[in-house]
Design goal:
Strand content: 15-25%
Helix content: 25-40%
Number of helices: 7
Largest sheet: 5 strands, parallel
Distance between the termini: 10 Å
Order of helices and strands: EHEHEHHEHEHH
Strand order of the largest sheet: 2-1-3-4-5
Structural class: alpha/beta
Shape: globular
């Protein structure tokens, strides 16, 4: 099963990409407007806790279970301040129980980024984000692959990723092939 995690606060470009990628055997989690608490850094998850975390929120009630059931996890995030969205970052911070319980070992985690600037204008940010998440993957022992970057255009001029990114359809088909959809 494929799990798509939408890290956008808006239901536009990231949602469009996910809708064009989804198949029958997939689960979609939209992080917008969900109760997502910040990691406390208490490290209680290193113990054999029943729920893996002392916090109780959308992450512990829904996301953890969905991640455990998924074969492929596809993170789709806008680029904000040269990084993934705060929603995605907060979820990644909360994955510490999976490290302590070795639950992500050999899982496939993919990343799709969406930004206003062109690929060439955002190459440093793309490389930095990919490098960071690649480092996290080594720590957790999951397989990480950066899939693609979509240009969404200036939200005040073009707010449709399919219009702004001239290679949109080709990229969607390539991603489907890579993750086996």
């Amino acid at each position: 099963m494929n799990l798509f995690i939408n890290g956008s606060n808006r239901e536009q470009n990231c949602s469009k990409i996910i809708n064009d990628l989804k198949s029958e055997k997939c689960n979609i989690i939209n992080l917008a407007n969900k109760d997502i608490k910040f990691c406390l850094g208490c490290n209680a998850c290193a113990k054999k806790l029943k729920n893996h975390c002392v916090l109780s929120d959308f992450v512990t009630t829904t996301i953890y279970k969905s991640i455990l059931e998924a074969d492929n996890i596809i993170l789709v995030s806008p680029v904000y301040m040269s990084q993934v969205s705060g929603l995605i970052k907060s979820v990644i911070d909360r994955l510490n129980p999976f490290y302590n319980h070795n639950s992500l070992k050999n899982k496939n985690i993919y990343l799709i980024l969406v930004g206003q600037a062109s690929y060439n204008d955002n190459i440093e940010e793309i490389n930095a984000i990919s490098s960071w998440l690649g480092g996290v993957s080594e720590w957790f022992s999951f397989n990480f692959e950066f899939l693609d970057y979509f240009e969404s255009g200036d939200i005040f001029k073009v707010s449709n990723v399919k219009v702004a990114d001239k290679k949109y359809n080709k990229k969607i088909e390539s991603i489907k092939q890579t993750i086996g959809i």
